[in-house]
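Q: what sequence does this backbone want?
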C-alpha cells in the first residue's frame, strides 16, 4: 500500500523548501505521486527527521554477556539504524551476523573488536590482556568477508581492559585500520594508556567514544592541555561520540565542553544490559540530556541522524529525494520536569524531552516511545 505522509515539521534534512506532503510507494521508496490508493500517515505536526541512528550499542545478545536484544534499542525506541560497537571480535563475528544482523528489521552495522573474543565475558575476561588476544590475519579476513557490515575497528583503551599492556592494542588497531582502510573507534577511560598517548594515534575519520566521561584521570577535563588537544583533534576531523554508558557520561564535563566549543559529532547510548534500566534507558533520553547540556535542537538532531548516517555512508543519509528509501523518525520535543542521572550518579532536572512517536521504514510504520523512567510515567 502506498503511504501519503502529511502534517509534519521537517528537521535534519539536506534539502530546503521541502514539500508539505510526500508519498512512499509499495517498494518503500519516496515517490512524487500515487497512481493508486494510499494510506494517509498524519504526523500531527510532529517533527519528521531522517531515521535516528545510534552509533554505539551492544546487541550481540547471547554472544556477549553484556549485550541486549537489538529490538530493545531499535524501532520501538525511534531508532532505525544501530551500530554494534565491538561486542564481537573475529572469533565470534559470524554469530553476530547470522543471529542478529541478518534477522533484524533495523539497519545494523558493526565495529569489529580488535580483541578476538570481543565482549564474551565483558570485563570479567578482558579481550586485550596480551598479544595472544589479537589475531591480525584472522581479523583482516573477517573484515574482507563482511565489508558491507563492518564500519571500523573498535579498541577499548582503558586500564581495566589493557592493564600493563598500555597503548600497544591501540597501535595494533591503528595498523589493522590502515591495512583495511577503515576508521577506528577508540573507547577512552582510566589510564593506562593516557589520553595523550591515544590522541597521538588518531587520524581524521576516527571516533573517540565516551568523549564526555567523568573519570579522573581519563577525561578530557583532566587538564586544559588535554581539553585543547581533544578540541584540536575534533577541528581536524576526529569525531567525538558521546557513548553515555554505565560509566562514561558526566553532566559537568559535557556542559563545560560544549560551552567551550567542543561539541559531539554523534550522540550515542552505549546501551547494554548494565544501563538499559538506567541511567541510559534509550537514545531519546540520552539526546535529551545533551539538549539540556547546551546543544541546540538542530545540533542534537544532526548528531543522531545526518552525522552518524554520513559516517556509515548510508544512501539516504538525510534526504527526501525521489527514489530514495523511506527511513524516518517522527518525534516531539515536549516540556517536562524530569530528574535524570549521569554515569556517576549526579542528578539534574530536564525541562525538555525528545519523545519518539513513530518510525517509517520502507512502506511500513512502527509505533515508538521513549522508555518510561521513574519520573516519566505520564
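A:
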Amino acid at each position: 500500500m502506498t503511504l501519503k505522509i502529511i502534517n509534519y515539521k521537517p528537521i535534519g534534512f539536506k534539502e530546503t523548501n521541502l514539500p508539505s506532503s510526500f508519498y512512499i510507494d509499495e517498494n518503500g521508496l519516496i515517490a512524487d505521486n500515487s497512481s493508486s490508493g494510499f494510506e494517509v500517515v498524519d504526523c500531527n505536526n510532529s517533527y519528521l527527521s531522517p531515521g535516528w541512528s545510534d552509533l554505539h550499542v551492544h546487541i550481540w545478545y547471547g554472544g556477549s554477556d553484556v549485550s541486549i536484544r537489538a529490538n530493545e534499542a531499535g524501532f520501538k525506541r525511534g531508532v532505525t539504524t544501530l551500530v554494534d560497537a565491538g561486542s564481537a571480535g573475529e572469533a565470534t563475528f559470524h554469530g553476530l551476523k547470522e543471529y542478529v544482523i541478518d534477522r533484524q528489521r533495523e539497519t545494523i552495522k558493526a565495529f569489529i573488536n580488535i580483541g578476538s573474543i570481543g565482549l564474551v565475558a565483558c570485563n570479567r575476561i578482558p579481550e586485550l590482556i596480551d598479544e595472544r588476544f589479537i589475531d591480525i590475519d584472522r581479523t583482516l579476513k573477517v573484515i574482507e568477508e563482511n565489508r558491507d557490515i563492518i564500519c571500523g575497528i573498535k579498541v577499548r583503551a582503558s586500564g581495566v581492559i589493557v592493564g600493563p599492556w598500555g597503548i600497544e592494542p591501540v597501535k595494533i588497531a591503528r595498523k589493522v585500520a590502515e591495512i583495511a582502510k577503515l576508521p577506528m573507534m577508540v573507547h577512552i577511560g582510566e589510564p593506562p594508556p593516557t589520553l595523550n598517548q591515544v590522541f597521538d594515534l588518531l587520524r581524521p575519520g576516527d571516533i573517540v567514544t565516551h568523549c564526555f566521561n567523568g573519570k579522573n584521570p581519563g577525561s578530557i577535563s583532566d587538564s586544559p592541555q588535554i581539553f585543547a588537544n581533544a578540541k584540536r583533534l575534533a577541528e581536524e576531523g576526529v569525531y567525538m561520540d558521546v557513548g553515555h554508558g554505565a560509566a562514561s557520561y558526566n553532566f559537568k564535563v559535557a556542559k563545560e565542553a560544549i560551552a567551550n566549543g567542543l561539541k559531539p559529532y554523534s550522540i550515542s547510548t552505549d546501551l547494554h544490559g548494565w544501563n538499559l534500566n538506567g541511567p541510559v534507558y534509550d537514545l531519546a533520553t540520552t539526546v535529551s540530556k545533551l539538549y539540556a547540556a547546551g546543544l541546540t535542537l538542530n545540533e542534537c538532531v544532526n548528531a543522531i541522524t545526518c552525522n552518524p548516517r554520513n559516517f556509515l555512508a548510508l544512501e539516504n543519509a538525510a534526504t527526501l529525494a525521489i527514489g530514495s528509501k523511506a527511513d524516518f523518525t517522527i518525534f516531539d520535543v515536549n516540556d517536562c520536569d524530569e530528574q535524570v542521572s549521569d554515569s556517576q550518579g549526579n542528578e539534574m532536572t530536564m525541562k525538555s524531552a525528545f519523545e519518539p512517536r513513530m518510525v517509517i521504514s520502507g512502506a511500513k510504520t512502527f509505533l515508538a516511545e521513549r522508555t518510561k523512567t521513574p519520573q516519566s510515567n505520564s
